[in-house]
Amino acid sequence: MVKVCKLCKEEKPLTEFYLFYSKWSNKNYTSCRCKSCHGKYKQNNVNTPKNRKTEKLKLRYGLTFEKWEEIRKQQNFSCMICGISEQENGRHLDVDHCHKSEKVRGVLCNHCNSLLGHSRDNIGTLKSAISYLEKYSKGYL
Length: 141
What we know:
With 141 residues, this protein is α+β, with helices and mostly antiparallel strands. The chain folds into 2 domains: 1-44, Wheat Germ Agglutinin (Isolectin 2), domain 1, CATH 3.30.60; 47-141, His-Me finger endonucleases (His-Me finger endonuclease fold). Helix content is 42%, strand content 21%. Strands 1-2 form a two-stranded antiparallel sheet. A two-stranded antiparallel ribbon has the order 3-4. It has a two-stranded antiparallel ribbon with strand order 5-6. A hairpin with a 6-residue loop joins β5 and β6.
């Protein structure tokens, strides 16, 4: 199998990419930069939380750190679905994006972002879930 490096844009075998583990998804994944680009990146970039966030936003969603902050401010630092604020939530909001178009839709709390992901962004599934909750809100039996 091969993968395209997000920095040098070259197609390389997966062995040329580092393997990482995500505790949130409980899955292994390959880095978005090849080993060569990853090494160069690490030499030239200070490893601060803001720099790490900036890099993730750029590579995953094509967003600058400033644009991410602007979106959060436009949404009053609150989830667009449930309305919980970052302060109430105790963490920053997640970037929500369409998995088909890769376009950013806004920022959501982790629970709402996961809800959309687990439903595979399927509107019919979400409508069925609403109907189910309305019908069985008092229990099945």
